[in-house]
Every structure is written in structure tokens, then in C-alpha cells.
User: What shape does this take?
Amino acid sequence: MTWRRLWAICRKEWIQIRRDPRTLAVVWALPLSQLILYGYAMDFDLKNIRIAVVDYDRSAASRRLLDDFERNEHFVIERRLERAGDAERFVAAGEVRQAIIVPRGFQRALRRDEAAPVQVLLDGADPITGGTALGYTQGLVGRFSSEYGSMGVRGYGGMGEPDSRPAASPGSAAEGATASALPYAHTPTLPYSRAPALPRAAVDIRTRVLYNPELRSTNFIVPGLIAVLLTMLAALLTSNTVVRERERGTFEALIATPVRPIELMVGKLIPYVLLAFAQVFLVVIAGRVLFGVRLQGSLALLAGLSLVFLLAALGFGLLISTVARTQQLALMAAIMATVIPSMLLSGFAFPLRNMPGVLRLFSNVFPATHYLVIVRGIYLKGVGMEVLWRPTLVLMGFALLLLAACARRFRKEL
Amino acid sequence: MDRLRTMVVKEFQQLRRDRRTMMMFTMSPVLQLIVVGYAVSNDVRHVPTGVYDGDRSQRSRALVRAIQVGDQFVVRYAASPRDLPRMLDRREAEVTLEIPAGFSRRLLRGETAPLQVLVDGSDSTSATLAAQYLGALLQASSANLAVEARRLARAPAARGVDLQPRVWFNPQLLSLHFMVPAVLALVLAVTTTIATSLSIVREREVGTLEQLVVTPLKSWELLAGKMIPPALLALADAALILLVIRYWFRVPMLGSPALVMLCVVGLMLNTLGTGLMISTISRTQQQAQLTAFLLINPAILLSGFIFPIANMPRLIQPFTWLIAARHFLEAERGVFLRGFGLADILPQLGALLLLGGLTFLLGVLRFRKQLD
Assistant: This one.
């Protein structure tokens, strides 16, 4: 391997990149545009859920409950209806997401300390929105029932002490307190069946959220996007480098030169590594400026480990390029092998633990899965190598393996 | 008609010989069904949970047992409370629970007994959901403990509001039922758009498009001949996918399959039109593919496939009206899950027709101009 030949290949590749406007467009437009698109579109925090209400009780208590819905930022009361049947029609037509039906005798039951039923009719077709709406409802109603109880409408003669404190709020209320804090609220026992009326529990669950205390979904999405974008970018960049030369017939010309396979491979890779590496910083800066996502850990560590990942990801693209017979096939393979896996199989948007065992094993095949652990670890948890050594080793293994495979393919063809 | 038939036969032959395109038509439905059917789920299952039980009483153990019922939480004990945050650091746990010493004693005395829950907020969607579930489970089981405590103290149990949710259309709130039907849109968008644009651009690249132009083929016959084969293949794909959704994933279909197929045809008008458009702005197959990719990706994102449109910023929301997949998904999910009839989905069908017609018209105009 001589530096002169390596340098020559690098320069040739660089010139080719510069002359190909599409590639440059991909490099500059893809990460930023996708970052903006995903950063803004992937938001689980629901606002303005349209609801319908039916108040059969027409009492002070029922009005207070519905006022709570009115004032809540998550809900918009779209309709106030007379009959439950009308509410059902609006839910069925999809005009409102849920209907709240307060039956007659609500206030009386509350005053007598009996279970006061409130019906919620929920459109569950979209389980994400539906579950979230139900979570918010449970939180709101829980808070209502704790406040109503602690207003002293009816206390606990004799015992007094345990339940009069707001800290010891009723069962559904503590649950409600969590629901209000968590953006993606969705409570387990309830959706499936009628929830039992929980007696007042004297347990105070203190939930503390680490790493992302405000639970902003962008804090979670943006670092993950770095992994997704780099994966796609890397594969798109290198997947056509070799096959293009072969299609155009310039590959023979290259073979005729004294360049060695390893020089050819490394030389082709270097410009792309630099280009993709610049994107890491671009995305980090954009994430900070556009979405206010702060890097908790060390930038140097992130950069170093990103480099390892890029070698693996670009090597993968290069391998595709040496195997594919046409540019078109190469591009197709690159898209197929990176976009879906990095977005859906890597744990980027959906937790790996929900997948069946085989698929979970399979997800380890993608470098993005491991890189995602690294990026999120450094970005949000601020951890270092003491935690990240394992995914780092795996990525190094990937990089070596892929580059060795590429070199082998090169040699064979020559 | 004869000419059109010849053209269609030629295209089919080319398709048959083109293993890649055939692969796309066969592999893309299979892959997407597997991924969407098995990987796309936010349900709370197998959540690694770190537990430190400082109370070591019968009641605290009952509490831990309660969260282990079902497959939602997998408990791992920590040796000391200081290990709990470390477990989160190392991703050995997504949530942790600390039961402090004296928990059950305080509970039985009628005092408030604190429990400490730590949540890994870095994975905000899944971990917070998990924390939510955990809270509810703890609350329910500790309620039992509290009832016991009150019985001992002879105090009445208050009840408060009893929320009775009824969930319609997807009573178990399964993501599967919502996600899997959307695979149809994905597959159609990928296969027909790419196949159409590539087959036209290829002829241009190879130079055979000129040859076709000098034959007596009229330009509409040329275009129809290009589109009929991928359209037929995609229809077959769609029918097959419907069967898999219905019988393999067992997603109930309340409406009529014929109506779903009608939606498919409406969407196909759009995807074919887009393919044609792309072919008119691309000189090489590679460009066509990249353009298709860059168009399809955001279109899927903005269609409401995974992320609810209502959550998007106000500024972005109007743009989703321009995306055919959005209307398709609304109609298709309506037919699937809500049992919508033709009258219910007329607006969506109209939108598909309008958008598809416009794309098609633009594509045809541009294509003819380029031929002249």
C-alpha cells in the first residue's frame, strides 16, 4: 500500500463526488430535511383531543368534572349532547375521539362515598392516540376525585389522619399524577375491562425520571435520528461507487493501473468517511439549535465512536456495491437493507423487547442497533466507555468484518 | 387494442426476465408484513425492572409478585438501592422500584408509605408507558394492602369516581390492528411507483424509447402498456396481503374487502402517477430510484402511518392533505376497524381520485412533451 496511489484514488473519488450533484444533494439535503421532518412529526404529546360530553346529572359535581375537561389543555369539548346515543354516533363517525357520559346520581353517589360511575366511550381504532387520551382522562378524573374527596364533602370520622392529606390521594389519583407527568399516558388495567373502584391507598409512589426529566419526545428522537440518518446516508453514498465504475466500464481501466485492491477500497472509502463524519456534527448542531437537545456526554467520545460506526456502515454500502451487478440493484439493496432496519428494527422508534426472539436476534445484525445504544447513552445519559464498551466492540467487529469482505471481493474480481 | 396488447405482453416479458423487479414485488410485501406485524409495537411487554426490597416482608414480596403477574415486567433484584440508577445507566433496567424499609409497618399503621420509582426517560415513549403501567399495578396491589390496613383500623373505605371505559373498534388497544392494515399503502407505494418510473427511464437510458416512439403506438398506449403490468402485479400483491392480514394476523375486518380493494385502486392511481412524474424528471434509473425514495419516505411519515397527524405542528398538518397515503389510510383503516361503508369513505375516495388524477395528468403532459 503506498500513500501516493491511495491519495490518487481518494482524489479521483472526491472529484467524482463533486461533479455528481445528486450525491451532493443527498449529502446535504437528506440529513437536515429528514431531521426536521422527523423531529417535528414524531411527537407523541397529544393536544386538542376532541371529545363529546353528556351530562345526565346536571349537578354541581358533574359540572365541575366537565369544567375540568374544558380547562384541560389536552381536551377540547367539541359537543355537549343530551343523549348518550348521540355521543355514540359522534364517536362512531370519528368526529370525536371520546365521549364522557355522567349518569344521573353522580353527585349523590360521591357524597355517600359510593362508587360514582362515569362512562368513557373511546375510539380505540388508533391505539396510540386512543390510549393516550384514556391515560389523560384517567389522570384528570383521578385528580378530580381526590380533590373532591379532600374538599371535605365527606371526611373520615375518627381516623381522619391517613386520607386527608393530598399526598395520600386515592388510588386512581396517584396514578393520575403520573399520567399528567407522562406525555404518553396509557394505563394498563383500565382499557381492557371495567376498572375496579380503587379504595384509597396509602401508598405514595414517587416517580423520578432520569436523563430526560421533562420527558420531551424530541430528546429521545433526535439522538436516535443521528443513527438512522447516518445509516441511510452511508449506504446511499457508497453503494454505487464500485458498481458505477463497472457499469461505465471504467473499472477495467482501474484494474489496468498498478493500484492494489486494498488501496482502491480504502481510497474509495476515505472521502465518504469524511463527508459522513461532517454530518455527525451537522446533526448535533442542528439538534441543539432547532430542537434544543443537549449533549450530556462527551462530544469527543461521540465523534470517535461515530467514526467506528461509519466505517461499518460505509463498509456495508461498499460491500453491496461490489456484489450488485447494476447501480439500480445496488441502490435498491442499500435502501432495503438500511431504511427499514434502522428505523423499525433497531429500537429507534419501537422497543426491541416487544419483538419475538428471532427478530430480536436478527436486529443485532444491523450496526445501527448497536450505534443507537451508543448515541443515546452519550447523548442522554452521559455515560462513557465503562458502559459502552460492548456495543463499541461489536461495531469494531462489524467494521473489520465488512472491510475484509470487501477486500476479498475486490481481489476476486481482479 | 391490438397494439396495446402487444405492448402489455412485451412489458410482462421484460418484467418476468427482470428478476430484481419481480423480487421487489414478492419480497417487499413479505418483509414489510413481518416487520410491521412483529416489530412495530409500543405495547408494554418484558420490561426489565430493577427492584430493591428494603422491607423484606411478606407484604413487600406480595407487591413485587404483583408486578410480575403477566408478561409486562421482568424483575431483577438489586443488592443495594445505589445499584438501581446504575442499572438504568447500563440499560439493565428501564424502570426501577425501591421499597424502603418499614414499608409494610407504616402501611399497617395507616401512615403513608412511600415507594420510589425511577424511570429511564431517555427512551421516552416506551419507558414512560412502562412507568405508567407499573404505577397502576403498584397502586392496585397496594390498595389491597390498604384495605387490609383499614380493616385492622376499622375505618371505612372511600370509593370516589369509578371510571368505566368502553373502548370501541380496537377494544384491546393493540397496535397490531392499527399498523398491519397500513402495510398495503407501503407496498403499493414502493412497488408501483418504483416499477413504473424505472421501466420508463430504463427505455430512455438504453435508447429503446425512441424505437417505441417510431412504432405506430400511440402515446397513451405506450403509457398504458407500461402501467398495466405493474398495476396487475400490485393488485395481486394487495389481495394476498389482505388475506395475510385477515387470516395470519387475525385482524378483524368489519367492512367489505371489495371496498378495501377500491381504496387500493384509488391509491394506485396516485402511485402510478407519481412513478410517471418521477420518470419525466429523471435521466437515469438511479436518479429515478433516489427521487422515489426521497418522495416516498416523507410521504409515509406524513400519512399518519405511525405518528398521529393530530400531533404534528399546525404548520405541517395542511400538507398532509396532499399526501394520497393519508386519505387511503383513513379510508382503509375505517373500513377495517370501524366497518365503514362506501358512503363513509366517499370524501377520502374523492381526494384520492382528485390527487391521483392531477398527478397523472401532469405526468402524461410532461411525458408527451418530452416525446415531441
Remarks:
- Chain A touches chain B through 137 residues (CB under 8 Å).
